[in-house]
Amino acid sequence: MNYTPKLFLYSLALTPTHFDKLETLAGKKAIDIRLACIENATDIIEGSEHWVPGIRQQLIDRGYQVETMDLRSAGYQLDELNKKLKTKDVIWVCGGHTYYLRWILKYSGADKIIQTLVAEGIIYAGWSAGAIMAGPTTKHFQLMGDDPAEAPELIEEGLHLTDKVIVPHMDNPDFANGAAKANAKLLQAGFKTIPLNDNQAYIIESAAGTII
């Protein structure tokens, strides 16, 4: 990788400090930030319609110009998707099912577009599964409850926006045990990991990343 991407990767919760940092990354006030909201990781998660709008509303309440983009839409041709994403300051990817998300990013062509646009300076932001996508692999996250068989195709290669694998929910009562096992497996396999508690974010804006 011959560029330094701007990445905002987190586990679950966003604090005012996190929002401030995202705005610093963008170099804009919240009201001027154009954000593409990709929520497809929740497509196959039962009951997600009850909590996804609330997470999106946090972004809207902060003042961001939020446009939700559904990668399942047959109307999105690659050129159109590229043009839409290119107008954004931030591409924000929701948490949900890791393996389904990786598949639909490939199916829609969004994976290659995101890689190109991040190389051009657009910020990639993601939480949980969306944060995992930024790394080099999706391996071992079945240990946190995501069944690879629920994705139409198993893709174990991440987007390679960073050489670190984000392991979210290290302190979450529902996921901590699986997160610890996934982290151990990844380390054993030679990957570099960034384990995050639910109130932490990993920020890359220069050669080194920081946890806040």
Question: Can you describe this structure?
Answer:
The structure is a single chain. With 212 residues, the chain is an alpha/beta fold. The chain contains 7 helices and 9 strands; from the N terminus they run βαβαβαβααβαβαβββ. α3 runs parallel beside α5 (110-119). The protein has helices spanning 16-26, 52-62, 78-86, 98-108, 110-119, 129-132, 176-188, and strands at residues 7-10, 34-38, 65-68, 90-93, 123-127, 164-167, 192-195, 201-204, 209-211. The chain has a single domain (7-211), classed as Rossmann fold, CATH 3.40.50. It is globular and about 40 Å long. The mean pLDDT is 95. 33% of the residues lie in helices and 17% in strands. β2, α2 and β3 form a beta-alpha-beta unit. The longest helix is centred in the C-terminal third of the chain and has 13 residues, at 176-188. The strands form 2 sheets. Strands 3-2-4-5-1-8-9 form a 7-stranded mixed sheet. Strands 6-7 form a two-stranded parallel sheet.
Short overview:
With 212 residues, the chain is α/β, with parallel strands linked by helices. The protein has helices spanning 16-26, 52-62, 78-86, 98-108, 110-119, 129-132, 176-188, and strands at residues 7-10, 34-38, 65-68, 90-93, 123-127, 164-167, 192-195, 201-204, 209-211.
